[in-house]
Amino acid sequence: MSLAPTDIILxxxxxxxxxxxxxxxxxxxxxxxxxxxxxxxxxxKIDSVEDEMLGRHVEMLFDAGFLDGSKMQSVSRSYHIVLVxxxxxxxxxxxxxxxxxxxxxxxxxxxxxxxxxxxxxxxIKDAAIAVLTSIVKARLGL
Length: 142
Known about the structure:
CATH class: Mainly Alpha
Radius of gyration: 16 Å
Number of domains: 1
Number of strands: 4
Helix content: 40-55%
Shape: globular
Distance between the termini: 46 Å
Strand content: 5-15%
Largest sheet: 2 strands, antiparallel
Structural class: alpha+beta
CATH topology: Arc Repressor Mutant, subunit A
């Protein structure tokens, strides 16, 4: 059985424990990349996030087509290093949907962090877009 890029188990660490996808971290990564003022390829840095956890999440987002950049194999790490240039088109759509605090909060109210981590990125994106669409329609009086 092969794992898809959006499966919950991301990697086995050197200690043998499994990492689970953290959607709040995914959102932070996407917001960090979106906030950059240029498209110079570089790694993503987020304070207080363990390198292995961050690196593996970035790698999975790249593999899922949400980040644009290049992936380099690393002998000394359990994940590939991704030099991120920008969000992909799909990544822009995803973060535009989940970057609105009201949309993200609605999702988090309905699902626990454990439940959110098991949902495919496409499902989260589609649900966030549906929530955003209803907010926009309400504001337009439709």
